[in-house]
Structure formats: C-alpha cells, structure tokens
Amino acid sequence: MNRRHFLCAAGAMTLLAGTGRARAEHKPNIVLILADDMGQHQAGCYGNPFYETPNLDRLAATGMKFLNGYAAAPVCSPTRAAIMTGKYPARLHLTDFIPGNLYPYAKLRTPDWRKSLPLEEKVLPEMLADAGYVSGHFGKWHLSVDKEYAPGRPGDPDTRGFSDVLALDKPDSGAAVQAGADPEYDAHHVREITDRAIAFIEKNREHPFLCYVSHSAIHQPVMEYTPRILKYANKKDASNHMGNNPVIGAMVETLDKQVGRLLDTLDALQLAENTLVIFLGDNGDYFGREGLKPLYGSKGDLYEGGVRVPFLMQWPAVIPAGTECAEPVCAIDFFPTFAEMAGIALNDPAVDGVSLLPAMKQCGALERDALYWHYPHYHTLGIAPSGSIRQGDYKLIEWFEKSIEGVETPGALELFNLREDPGERHNLAAAMPEKVRDMYEQLKAWRASVGAQEMERNPNYDPEKAEERQ
C-alpha cells in the first residue's frame, strides 16, 4: 500500500469514527452484488427508461455511478475468478466459462485453459480473514470443476474461506419447469439468495463482513412472473429480439426489488454508513448487438456492449452522494480495494488490479496506464476470438483469426475513440496507423508479461465444419 492510499484509508476510518454509527476499530463491511449477463443499458440510472430499477437508481443517487465500469471478461467464470483474486483471467489461464465449448474444426485451436480456479490462489475471503472478517457466499459460484457442490470439496466456496454458503445455480435451460423452477415465483432463486444474505448480515452485524451476493439472474432461461412480463410487453419501446426484452425487463425488476431489500436491511441495522455496497454485472447482455445503444456488442464480445457493465458503489462515510465517475475501473480492482479498506498489505506482485479508493473519494485518477482483455475462445453467439486494450480514450481490438494471417490483414485490428464514439462505429485504424502500432505492441507485451495463452492454427481446420462444437 503506498502512502497516498494509506492516507485515503486512514481518512475514511477517521470519518467513520465521528458518525456515531460505527466504532473506529470496526472495519468497513462489504456487500458485493453480482448480476449475471446484465448490460449497462439494463439499469435505469444509465439512461434507459424501459428498465425500472429504482433501487439501483438509489445506489447511484446515494453513491457513485461509474460510467466506464468493466467486467474482466465477456463471459462469467473469468470475471468471477478476477473478482476473487484481483488478477486478469489471462494470468490465471481461466479465460472462458466453465467448462466451455470445444470447436474442433475452427480455424484456430483453443488453448488448454484451466477449468477451475487454481487452489493455490488466495481468494477474497481468505485474504479478508487475516483482518478478522467473516464471509458469506450466496448464489452462483461457477469456479469449481463442475456445479455438483458438496461441503468440504476442494474448490467449492466453503473451502475457499466462506463460512456461510448457499450454492445455487440457474435452472437448466430448456427444462426449467420440469427441473422444478416455477416461472411464477422466484424462478432464478433471487429471493432465496437474498433471504440468506440478509440472515447473514443480521447474524454478523457486530463483526466486519464480506457478503457476496452472486445472482444467476438475468441469465437464461428467460422466464418471470407473468403480470410483470405483461407490464413491460405493453411498453411502446418493447422488443423481443433487441435490448428492451419484456421478459428481461421483468427479471431486472425482480432483481432490483431484492437489491432494495438488502439496502433496507443495512439501513434498519444502522450499518449503511460503514458498509461499501457494490453492484455490477459479470459481462454484457446476451441479447442482440444492435439493441444496446449507445453501446454496441453483446456477451462474448470485446466491444463495449460485452464488457462495459453497470458498476455502482455506495459507502456514505467515504463516497460523495450522486457522483458520476468516468475513470475506467474493472472487476480486477476489488481485491486490492478491499485489502486497503481492511488495512492488509498485499504481498503478491501478480495482483493486477489497483485500489479504487482514490476514485471512490473524489473520482481521482488511478495509477495504471491501460486495461486489457484476452478471450482466446469461440463463443456460441458466433463471435470470434479476440483481445483488446483500453488506454485513455482509445481502445484497440485484435481479431485473432485475421491477425494470425498478419496484422495488415483488413479487419485484424480495430481502433476506436470511446469518448467520441462509444458505440464503436468508426474504425480509426487506417487513419491512425501509429496509434494502432503503439497500442498493438503494448497489447502483445502485456500478454507476454502475464503468460497469456496464445491461439495457434488448428491442423484439423475444416471451413464447412468450423461452427460445430463439442
């Protein structure tokens, strides 16, 4: 921890001591709420009135809304691994959802990536335990070799530092009702997960805690309470195949209501002042590249629609209310942020994230030059493998199928100015070749520095079978 960050943390604790609601020696609580497949456009506070999210809007009004908040990957498991470790998925070699899909006849061969979070990695609850925190996990884990969770099994949440665990997952796609899910009541376990999280908070109100609320909503299967669906279907800007999907609208509203219950619980227990509440998505929206205006892209994409997500924080003792912050932030940043809040010195030089405390206090600049993504996989939505770098206002995307033929190949590299063109409609690569060259060299150097797994030509490539998967 450098001196500047230490002073931020010390100032926060001094402020807390004067509130009358928290003792100076009581470290801040943390409630981390993660939504599944939720794009930035699906929270009303980001400007889309179709989705009704009064409680997320409440978080933005009483805390900070990050305009450039990012998932660590365009799919779920890598982002979750990044949250737990503070490391880029490329460094962990955990770069796709577990267990992923094989494309045996595609042009490029997928690397032999890790299908679970390495046991040797120290994860958030284990790190926070060193400062006296108790941790609870409620909902989706998706970092073990499979979803057959069992108490005491290595890699499952209760063996990674969580003392209170409810491990649930989404209903099986295509067989949800047969599997026991009731589309008319809590189909995605949102209420059940929240009930357990609230009980954990009430039980541990006298101790610093990490409450990790990890939802399967708004992931498929797409189903919800019928009257709520009809409410959104009757809106004039509803569209079944674009960004404003009525069933998704109902699912978002259900999720938002349960977020409100968590916030109300913190208020009732007089814990809100000394609690950092975070809400974000694990990757972008599944439905439709074109329906996410002003962003473009979807889950599986390294366009903004695939990785830029709702990213909200509330901590009344530290974060100014109603603040918007354009500083780029990422899921890799929680690990070092929580460490600083808890007064823990990090000794692992491989942690890639940076503490967000400077941004949280007054939207101060963070001490890094760029953010990176690496997705050496084919996605079921038909999206090809890619990598990217964001540096300042500029973002470079490399499409691996084309760059393997040479970076001069048309379309191999795309450059966008996100401040002027957040929808990534105007490729500047031809107009700014020096910028492209510099950022591409930096992207390659980063991949080498973290040991990213590169894709190679597939000797079994068959253009007619390329889209087949196993």
Give a concise summary.
With 470 residues, the chain is an alpha/beta fold. It has helices spanning 3-17, 54-62, 76-85, 89-92, 124-129, 190-203, 226-233, 246-268, 304-307, 334-342, 357-362, 400-403, 433-450; strands at 29-35, 64-66, 69-70, 108-109, 134-139, 164-167, 209-214, 275-281, 311-314, 323-325, 329-330, 371-375, 386-391, 394-399, 413-417, 456-457.
CATH architecture of the largest domain: 3-Layer(aba) Sandwich
Percent helix:
25-40%
**Spatial order of the strands in the main sheet?**
6-5-7-1-8-9-2-10
What kind of sheet is the major sheet?
8 strands, mixed
Tell me the series of helices and strands, N- to C-terminal: HEHEEHHEHEEHEHHEHEEEHHEEEHEHE
> What fold name stands as the CATH topology of the largest domain?
Alkaline Phosphatase, subunit A
CATH H-level superfamily title of the largest domain: Alkaline Phosphatase, subunit A
- Stretches where pLDDT is under 50 for at least 5 consecutive residues are 1-24, 173-177
> Number of DSSP helices?
13
The general outline is globular
Q: How many whole angstroms does the radius of gyration measure?
A: 21 Å
Through-space gap between termini: 46 Å
Strand content: 5-15%
